[in-house]
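Input sequence (477 aa), recorded before submission:
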Amino acid sequence: MCAKRMSPAHLSKLLLQASAPLCIFDEQRQLVFANQALEELFAISFDDMLGHVASYGGPVTGKPTVDAVSMLCPPPQAFVDQFMSVPIAVPAKPPNDQLPHEGGLAPSTGEANYRARCLPLSALASPSMAGGVLVVLTAPSSDDAEVSVRSDLGKAEWPGLHAALQRSQQVTARQAKTSPLFGVSAARERVAHQVEMLAATPSAATIIGPLGAPRSALAEYLHASTQSHQRGRFLALDCGQIPWDELQESVFSFLAAGEPTGESTIDTILLDSLDEIPELEQHVAGEFISRLGREVRLLAATKSSLQTLAQQGTFDERLAAMLGTAELVIPPLTARREDIPLTAQAHVEFLNAASQCQRAGFSKSAMDDLCLGSWPGDVAELNAVVAMAHQHAAAEEISRDDLPEAFSRALQASSESVVQPLAPIDLEAYLAEIEATLIRRALDHAKGNKTKAAELLGMTRPRLYRRLGQLGWSDEA
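Predicted structure, token format:
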């Protein structure tokens, strides 16, 4: 005999009386109900939360209400009538004498662990509420895995990875900066320590990493880590794609557009792929850079050490010296495999925030395969594989069968020690196709708003316009 389902009015009455923090999302992932206990936990009123549409994870927006609703969003499986119980990290409640910020979360120094019990409303209420999910926050059980233990994150499954990302994002919200490197490896921690040290000085530096490593993003993170009273503007220039005369014009325009603030701020200019400029242009580049003055901090992003290249006679010694001796080395993904699970989960949640398509994460077998990949294209290749799996997955959890065929074929060949060559893969075209797909999805999600699309993609608006032009989408620009 089927249990009698409650009417919406009866259910609302019961939920209002509940002491546990809880809320309801409708089938469109829109928050439609929150009780007083949840309002008190987050220091946000229900009226502020009402109507916000959440995604399962994604980058911090800096808007406390939006970020809180996203934090509460149930896994995608819950919206297809699966009961789910997952860990969640909620910002620690501030002291009683500390007033919350206007309109949102009060500053906190840590987080509290909860379990989010996600109950499909189709099992509780009338058919009119089918597709919705009730989320109840409870204390974690004693046998819950502690997802914050560093040694466990390298092998954790998606619920634990999601909670770990939430913790990281709460730190991000407090510091107003986001590292492009995810994970728990000692190699990643060394990079984070180097960034902290370099951020304390305006000296030039070179960021070294393999093809596909987030060199440009790390340069911007280094800039954002600089003391706010010293931090000026940031300009990234791709020396491998733009002729040097155009680069000089871009720098002149950038410097001319700066308005005097009366403060001793220093602008940062990133010369990405500086090691790719032709030998004949290196001397010209050195002459130009020498005239920029001390109000500009120079960063270079390269595949190899400029100092080493200069010693080998393949790079201009003077230009290498101008970029200083400080080097920030990003280890290849294969040298920090324990970072792959969190890196892959972070990109899944980034894609969730950029589209209507929602995935919880990878199955254990799929994640095992990702951790065994050779990744010649480093993080960019991993993100491309994640994007294709996210787009074509048959269910809310991405399985081994959802991974791109080319990746699975290469992994199988590697595991079998097959010596015959694989069919050639054009990595540049492969990554360009994925980038074009993500740009289209971001534009669709932003309803054509270029500024919002650029924010979703984690790039500047001018860079988005430049990529649209390179893709030949003149009607989009």
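Checked by second reader. The chain has three domains: 8-144, 186-332, 334-470.
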